[in-house]
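Lecture 7 notes: from sequence to structure.

We start with a single chain of 330 residues. Read the sequence below before looking at the structure.
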Amino acid sequence: MCGLCSVLQAADVTMLAIEGRRMTPDQAATVEKKVQENPKNIEARTQLLGYYFAKQYTDTAARKAKQKNVLWLIENKPEAGVLGTPFGQLDMVLDGSAYTRGKQAWEKQLKAQPDNLTLLGHSANYFLLPDRELAKKSLKKAQKLDADNPQWARKLGQLYSLDMQSSSSLKVQKEAATQALEQLEIAYQLSANQAKDVLLKSLAQAALVAGDTEKAKEYAELMLNQIGSDWNSGNNEHYGNIILGEIALAEGDVDAAKQYLIKAGKTKGSPQLNSFGPDFGLAKALLEKDQKEVVLEYLTLCGNFWVLGKDRLAEWSKAINDNQIPKTLR
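Now the structure, written as tokens:
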């Protein structure tokens, strides 16, 4: 071990935290002792943050221990790699005053080192959900300093996409989608190979909400052209067809929308689809147009890859057979 997580790659830092998650209480106590003996032992703190990550939700002492380590790192070693991962974040609701202290510490660090790209990236992760405007400020500064790096535009695109998804105002959704599309297209142009491929879903969705149907169709078709044997192929097949189906339905072509829905259901699946399930937006829209049979067929097809959701799929199928639109259908 090198003793300085700031020089480790992100994957190495994440693996170190995952190792921490697997520690026993006795092992964690030994690592805690290392930190007491040497507060600058960043690897030990990284392991502890992994250990406390899941426990923080049910154990007050674990939550406080996590807060203590995150705050020490922000105030003393803000470039530590773990602060760029979920293990090094605090939540505004769950952590309360500790989150506020962390926010103030990040603002102090950014004032002292306004052009430090690592700090700009880490602070953007910290502010991502509770303080999106601050996250955008950090990312825009980083983008200005490091214009050829696609990560800044990609992260800005993700932030604007969150704005798009969380607003109930159609006007706000469209404005956020337009901004997301602009940043995601910058990231797409700066990226290569699989990194470009992974952006296609977000590009197509942002274009659709922004009202640029031609671009949405173009990116959806690119997704379908990328189908192969890699881990993202199942996502491309699923979401490419869903987006083309939504476009067809918006244009009044119900039959085409139904065909796209079935094609989407025939995906081989993916790590994301297998865990979190498929997209039901097009299915729900077709249900609202009394297209019950095709939606039932789609749910059956989804059961081939979404094994974790079979009970939910069965529940929804029963409701649809009873001529109801399931309230929980996403």
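The chain is about 70% helix and 0% strand. Keep this in mind for problem set 3.
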